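Researcher: Structure prediction, please.
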Amino acid sequence: MFKHLKIKLLFPVLGLGGILLMTPSCNNANKLISGIDLKNLDTTAVPGTDFYQYACGGWMKNNPLTGEYARFGSFDKLAENNRKQLRELIEEIAAKPANKGTVEQKIGDLYNLAMDSVKLNKDGIKPVENQLKAIASIKSTQELTKLMPELLKTDVDTYFALYVDADLMNSNEYLVQTYQSGISLGEREYYLDNDAQTTNIRNKYKEHVVKMFQLFGFAEPVAKQNMESVLKIETRLATAAYDQIKLRDPHANYNKMSVADLQKLVPAINWNEYLKAMGVAQIKDISVSQKESLIEVGNIITTEPLATQIAYLQWKVIDAAAGYLSDNIYAQNFDFYGKTLSGKTEQTPRWKRAVSNVDGVLGEAVGQMYVKKYFPAEAKERMLKLVNNLQASLGERINALPWMGDSTKLKAIDKLNTFHVKIGYPDKWRDYDNLDITKDSYYANIQRANRFESAYMFAKAARKEVDKEEWFMTPQTVNAYYNPSTNEICFPAGILQYPFFDMNADDAFNYGAIGVVIGHEMTHGFDDQGCQFDKDGNLKNWWTADDKKNFDARTKGLADYFDAIEVAPGTKANGKFTLGENIADHGGLQVSYNAFTKATKESHLANVDGFTPEQRFFLSYANVWAGNIRPEEILVLTKSDPHSLGKWRVNGALPHIQAWYDAFGIKATDAMYVKTENRVSIW
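Model: Predicted structure follows.
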């Protein structure tokens, strides 16, 4: 919960880190290899029929899904390799005695607790008993609302979320904001839709809730009654929640008001007490991001019986704690969220979970050690040169746009030139002195870590001025992001390696992979959401009416195109939900290909392994998205993920790129062919 809510990611799943393998741009084809692994290809497939299968079919065959994964792709493979490196770092620390209060002590003790199955099984539900008893002792709605902020501090997801982030209308200052939350299945459709697949998941969820209550000591009749209470409240929250498309409208999700007005809007909660408990008693204003949802929270508090709400709160504690307790509790949690929801058949090994959780709790402390060992300092400067090339390329394309007027172009270029670029790792590291890690229990430490994160975030409200040097990813993360409020693009060390970058490969490979990644993040500044923020990160229109109309017409064409894609029998993609990411993929391809042609204009790259440089550009792009996925996970991600599925980030994006047609000789008779007049061209 305590994480930035507006950043635009390259990929939905945050992996762990890796080694940077990078050299300055070089186009001497006699010294550099193609970078394309021929084993990734399926040359029995026809490029114009299914380019994804052609470029990635070999990879998919050679990397079958294991029971541990619902989806496994290039990102995950890279993350697996990097997680082994982090394991070596952490286990080396955990094996040695360390002085109390040091980072080494905190990393070592937390990891050892996570790995100690004997203690976890012996403790059972004891680490949670006091929280459950405190909830059971509630005698009034006043007591209930007093407990809510205490649960929020420990990352127990009840009713709604509260967080601190930049004010959309004044990006230099922090603003406390609410956000709809409180539903354990994550997406409102699981509670509201009645198709066979969704109904089955909902029924399995009910069974899961009953089983979990029983594991926590509740008799079966009480467990069943509690489940009905949980479903009743979560369904009400889901009904009032905004859908994924409305959540993408920044204006619809910005409702700044005084705390006094919030008290009138939702009188069921004493907001002065609530905010005081969160450490932000001094604030005068707050943004109610989804007003109707918060109003319904107030209605639930005042209309649902106290016993119903106690059961709901107890469930939220149980659900939050399940990953940090005994093996039988973890197994039941996995049985639903892993097997039923995502189609997995095997639990993630304990050491992987332990590494991931240590990384989540002490991310920058681990990251500082990681970059010292694996990330060469000179890599930042080398990466910046490539970013500058892509920045110049996007500027050229903006200036050449036939559908945009000069005044809007000037403002677009101004925004582009003020991008704040972050590479590798932060210049200033986080301080973990106030985080106390002891040997009492794994879950108790997770709670303290969540309180530590909560205090860290809410302290921003007192500072007011936004810290634009803060990182929202650790250096070891295999991902990248754009943040509209700070107008920044960030490329952690973890993503700067094969298959994104290969120090031994030529520009055809590297511009097709990391080049498109860079262009993708830059284009987020000009996607359907990013384009609503000015160069300073404020939600402010900088378009002429005609130019915005032209832009909206072009983006609608892309949304309509993806809306028509059938991702599973009877299930279509959601082009409006995935529009921002699809625009970024489209722009990334166009911008990086333009930069690639400029960079290689004088170098005359040779054909290698039977492929032209242009073909290798698109093959390297496709290989970034190589992966296998379970049918269950396709349905989950279509509901929940703003990114298109990997297959469609290739087969859905490339038919709008003329250079791809030229490179592979795609003809009108090919299945992937889109008529010229129907192709989308935006940035």
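Model: Confidence is low (pLDDT under 50) at residues 1-5, 13-30.
Researcher: Thanks, that helps.
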